[in-house]
Amino acid sequence: MACNSCSTGKDGQPKGCKNNGTCGTDSCNKLTVFDWLSNMSLPNGEKPFNWVEVRFKNGRKNYYHNTENLTLSIGDVVATQAQSGHDIGMVTLTGELVRVQMKRKNISETGDDILKIYRKASQKDIDIWSTARDKEEAMKVKARQFAIDLKLQMKISDIEFQGDASKATFYYTAEERVDFRELIKLFAREFRTRIEMKQVGFRQEAARLGGIGSCGRELCCSTWLTDFRSVSTSAARYQQLSLNPQKLAGQCGKLKCCLNYELDTYLDALKAFPKTDIKLKTEKGTAVCQKTDIFKGHMWYAYEGEWMNWHKITTDQANEIIEANKKNKKIASLEEYASDLIEDTKTEFENVVGQDSLTRFDSPKRNNKRRNNRKKGNQANKNAKPNNPNQNNRNKNNRRKPQKNKNEAK
Asked: What is each CA distance from 324 to 263, 320, 331, in whole angstroms?
């Protein structure tokens, strides 16, 4: 999906389109749809679909009717119709795939609310648009301070200027209904522009702002996820995940959308498992399910009154016992089934780092005994009385002098 400008240069470094995060051809932006029909020609007599998809700030998209039959391609900056004035956006999709996207999102091609494309944006339009975009961050800081001063229970998450800089849309999140009439007066007096307040959900806020998830990758809602399905705690239960809200919640504070990705696979696998509330009746006693392993297809049962002793059986064996119980038959015990599943749990570890010891970087332990003996010796020398100097001289004189050679004496 990357464009040709993202290829590698002669020095091995990526070229890039030098647009500081906004791809010049819109091939590297988030929520970009790959036009796999671009190289295919239309049948004879068919006219190209005259609707285009235009993207605005932070993945906001809309569909516009190309009434002027402009020659548009992905990456073109266009001036589009708005409620008052015009807006500036970038074309992200053209052709038959636009028809598919509109049908998927239930957008009608006929009606009174159809928006049109005016023209390709001129350099003057782009300059006004860029100047307005540069003001948004400073305005957001002031807007949040105004909301705090008025003690409103709301959070200004983002600000988006219209392309002609005639209107600013303030996106906010709130738990309850907020009376922001006084806040709008402050905004209009301070920013000298028309103000529109738009409430978004916490997931929409995370999608607009973006971020890095606990998996280490960009948030799905800000890159490719376009619709937000409801996520419940039952999805975590089916996948046998710990019901820890700190681990299951995303940056939006809600349950992670990725909990639904593998849910259907788990539900299909659980069809082969009997219900955990069904008890197994044996001659030794009644057994209750304690744990299941979806990947290996094993189940653990314990007798009533002997909750510490678990017996592992397969799902086929559990279904076989349940069918026998339905026919008023009891098996002898679970041990005869569990004995077939005894496995060798002995694990042989290998030295994966070669001949090096795993503790080679640990600091060696000092010999405390030798160190203590050395301290005692030094202390004894300090406490000893000094020697008599006369006695030392006497000892030197009493030393045996070396005898001279007889030949030298003669």
From this structure: 31, 6, 8
Q: Give the separation between CA 32 and CA 100, rounded to whole angstroms.
A: 15
Residue keyed to tokens 């509109």: 102
Q: How far apart are CA 122 and CA 76, in angstroms?
A: 11
Q: What is the pLDDT of residues 281-310, one digit of tens each?
A: 999 899 999 999 999 899 999 999 888 989
Helix-helix angle 123-134:136-149, to 10 degrees: 40
Which residues are CB-contacts of 186 (< 8 A; sequence separation ≥ 6)?
146, 150
| Secondary structure letter of residue 42 according to DSSP | P
Type and span of the H or E element at 170:
strand 167-173
Among candidate residues 57, 58, 98, the one with its CA nearest the CA of residue 74: 98
- Of 170, 174, 226, nearest to 195 (Cα)? 170
* Cα 351 from Cα 115, distance rounded (Å): 68
Backbone angles phi, psi at 151, to 5 degrees: 60, 45
Q: How far apart are CA 91 and CA 78, in angstroms?
A: 7
CA–CA gap between residue 399 and residue 130 (Å, rounded):
103
Output the CA–CA distances (angstroms, integers) from residue 154 to 119, 188, 255, 365, in the order listed.
38, 18, 21, 59
Structural domains for the chain = 31-121 (no CATH), 130-200 (3.30.300), 207-269 (no CATH), 280-341 (no CATH)
Question: Which of 190, 81, 85, 92 has the alpha carbon at shortest distance from 146?
Answer: 190
pLDDT in tens, 23-70: 545 455 556 667 777 777 777 777 888 899 999 987 788 999 998 888
Residues 6+ apart with CB under 8 A from 303: 284, 285, 286, 287, 288, 309, 334
Q: Which of 160, 253, 248, 246 is nearest to 202 (CA)?
A: 253
Q: pLDDT-derived band of residue 20, with 50, 70 and 90 as boundaries? A: very low
Long-range pairs for 159-162: beta carbons < 8 A, 24 or more residues apart = 160/56, 160/57, 160/58, 160/60, 160/136, 161/129, 161/132, 161/133, 161/135, 161/136, 162/82, 162/85, 162/86, 162/87, 162/132
pLDDT digits (tens, 9 = 90+) for 190-225: 999 999 999 998 998 988 888 899 899 889 888 888
Q: Is residue 380 classed as helix, strand or coil in its secondary structure?
A: helix
Cβ count within 10 A of residue 333: 15
DSSP 190-234: HH-SEEEEEE--HHHHHHHH--B-TTSSB-HHHHT--S-----HH
